[in-house]
Structure formats: structure tokens, C-alpha cells
């Protein structure tokens, strides 16, 4: 029995130092530690002053966007325990003794508030925040014609099905056949349309796509009727 108790005690200590219980907990909205001052204040004292800041590799960009985050520690008593909420949802996303730096991938546009809590081995804690502004990325229009050349009158299929939006989806396809600045075809479901060029000449039909954020992109394809 004594051996079992010793083993359980050792396992408890091991789990505490590996951070197995820190990455998925709900953030306590009170002070970081009941024995320390409120979040964001300096614990004070003559032995140490614990302060932390967040360094971000990028603060503004377009989705999808990767950001490296590093916790900078000033003062305190090592080792330090780190907790991160990287999307502002009120839950810790990362936690442990070895997560002073994290890499985060933001797939969607939004203004994200990062919360970092650092606790030192003396029980002092400090919280700090930072903002990451992830802007929407526009769609990419991909225009094709099949066939792209032939004898007039030339019946061709103008295909925009290869168009995409990396942080959302395309909601509208428009084709300007001539082009003359007037879009002759519009659809929110079908990216392709058949069109016949009756006269001999070189045409540059233009595709315009719109994504779910209201952003647009255009692309043209050359069609030769001989």
C-alpha cells in the first residue's frame, strides 16, 4: 500500500509539471491566483517584480494567417507556467511550463484578442493582452474557354468553375462576353455558360466572381474565331 501511495504521489507531481491540466480549462474571470493582486497588476515586493508582454510576428494581415506569439518575462521567480487564450473565446487554448511560444493559424477573418497569463513558482501571476486583426481575403477568378479557338460561328463553353475563395466561398459568377463592360450573364449557382461567337475575330470574355465577404476578382480568357 505504501508503494502505491508513493507511486500515485509521484504521478501527481509529474502531471502538474507537464501541464496536462491546463490547455482546455475555462478562463477564470477573477484574479489569476487567489493570493495575488488582480489581473494586470504588479505583485510588487522587493524580491521580484513579475511583468509579461506579448511579441507577435504579425498583427495585421489577410486570412489564412499564421502568427507566432512569444511571452516576454520580466522579473519573477522561474520556472514559469504559461496559459494562452488565442481567439478570445474564454477558454485556455494552450498551457504548460514549456509554452512560452506558440504558433497560431487563423483561418477566418476577425479581430482576435489574445490573453496571456503567466504564473511564477512563487505564486505571483500576471495577465496581458494583444490584438490580431485578420482581414478577409478576396476570391480568385479562374476563366477558361472550351474550345478556345475554331471556325466561326464558334460555340464555346466559358468555364469559371475553377474560381475559389481561400477563407470562404464564391457566391456569384458573372461573364462579360465581348467584353464591353456590361456583364451579360450572372448566376449564384452555375459558374459556366455557353456562348457563340458568330463573327471572325479575337475575343476576351471576362469573368467576375464575388465571395461571401462581398470582395471581387476578375479574369479574362482569349477566344479566337477564324
What is the topological layout?
Elements: H1 2-18, E1 51-56, E2 60-62, E3 65-74, E4 80-85, E5 94-96, E6 101-106, E7 110-120, E8 125-135, E9 144-146, E10 149-150, E11 154-159, E12 170-176, E13 185-187, E14 192-197, E15 201-203, E16 206-211, E17 216-220, E18 223-225
Parallel strand pairs: 2-8, 10-18
Antiparallel strand pairs: 1-3, 3-6, 4-5, 4-7, 7-8, 9-11, 11-14, 12-13, 12-16, 15-18, 16-17
Key descriptive features of the protein:
226 residues; Immunoglobulin-like; disordered N terminus; mainly beta; five-stranded mixed β-sheet; 8% helix; single chain
Task: Report on this structure.
The protein is rod-shaped, with a radius of gyration of 29 Å. It has two domains: 22-135, Immunoglobulins (Immunoglobulin-like), CATH 2.60.40.10; 144-225, Immunoglobulins (Immunoglobulin-like, Sandwich), CATH 2.60.40. A hairpin with a 4-residue loop joins strand 7 (110-120) and strand 8 (125-135). It contains one helix and 18 strands. With 226 residues, the protein is mainly β. The strands form five sheets. The protein has a five-stranded mixed sheet with strand order 2-8-7-4-5, with no helix packed on it. It has a four-stranded antiparallel sheet with strand order 13-12-16-17, with no helix packed on it. Helices cover 8% and strands 44% of the residues. The termini are far apart. The protein has one helix at residues 2-18; strands at 51-56, 60-62, 65-74, 80-85, 94-96, 101-106, 110-120, 125-135, 144-146, 149-150, 154-159, 170-176, 185-187, 192-197, 201-203, 206-211, 216-220, 223-225. The relative contact order is 0.15.
Amino acid at each position: 500500500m505504501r508503494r502505491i501511495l508513493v507511486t500515485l504521489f509521484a504521478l501527481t507531481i509529474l502531471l502538474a509539471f507537464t501541464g496536462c491540466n491546463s490547455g482546455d480549462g475555462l478562463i477564470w474571470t477573477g484574479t489569476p491566483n487567489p493570493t495575488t493582486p488582480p489581473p494586470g497588476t504588479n505583485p510588487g515586493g522587493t524580491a521580484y517584480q513579475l511583468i509579461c508582454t506579448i511579441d507577435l510576428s504579425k498583427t495585421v494581415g489577410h486570412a489564412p494567417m499564421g502568427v507566432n506569439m512569444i511571452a516576454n518575462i520580466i522579473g519573477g521567480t522561474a520556472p514559469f507556467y504559461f496559459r494562452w487564450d488565442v481567439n478570445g473565446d474564454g477558454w485556455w487554448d494552450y498551457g504548460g511550463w514549456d509554452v512560452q511560444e506558440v504558433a497560431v493559424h487563423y483561418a477566418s477573418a476577425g479581430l482576435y484578442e489574445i490573453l496571456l497569463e503567466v504564473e511564477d513558482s512563487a505564486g505571483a501571476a500576471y495577465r496581458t493582452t494583444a490584438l490580431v486583426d485578420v482581414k478577409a481575403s478576396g476570391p480568385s477568378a479562374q476563366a477558361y474557354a472550351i474550345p478556345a479557338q475554331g471556325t466561326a460561328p464558334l460555340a464555346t463553353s466559358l468555364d469559371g468553375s475553377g474560381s475559389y475563395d481561400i477563407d470562404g466561398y464564391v457566391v456569384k459568377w458573372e461573364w462579360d462576353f465581348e467584353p464591353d463592360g456590361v456583364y451579360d450573364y450572372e448566376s449564384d449557382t452555375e459558374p459556366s455558360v455557353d456562348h457563340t461567337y458568330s463573327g471572325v475575330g479575337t475575343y476576351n470574355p471576362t469573368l467576375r466572381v464575388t465571395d461571401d465577404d462581398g470582395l471581387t476578382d476578375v479574369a479574362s480568357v482569349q477566344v479566337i474565331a477564324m
